[in-house]
Amino acid sequence: MVAVGTSGNDLQVIDRRRIELIEDGELWAKMPYHAAEELEPEEAERMVNRGIESAHRVAAARMKEAIDRLRGHKYEIAGAVLVPSPMPHWSTGEILAVHFRMHKAEGVLFPDALCRAAEAYDVPLAAVPEKGLEEYAERALGMPTGGPSKMIAELGKPIGPPWAKDQRNAALAAVIALKRSNEK
Question: What is the mean pLDDT of residues 125-132?
């Protein structure tokens, strides 16, 4: 999670942290389709559903913690969640039948849980597509080619490492959400 705000006309990172969306002791829930891969269909369906329910429950708890922390410091939340490309409406059986589909379903699971948590807490949802993020950001922010990457690299300098790709992408999504919020 990366929270971005403004100080005058300058952007700054307000908060960044790794948020785990699985409960301690539920490592299997990180990849529920893989955990269910060798199970009988009914048992596999139950395990996948437990994993999905766990992701939604934990995402809601982590979202509330982040909201409370940010609002406790008097920040207004513009909201953003990076989202992967949408997935067809496959059944659990159809997903388990093709290994690639399991990866796709697990890649969509946690962003979807975060989107639902944002909606549940009335956080404005600026669903920013992860695929093609740089080009999307160029259009959304009205910047030239490469501009968003340079801006985000500069944004990360004051906070120091790590400033990994996932954090840079989250920060870019946050900047897009902030711009949208300011335009309203």
Answer: 88
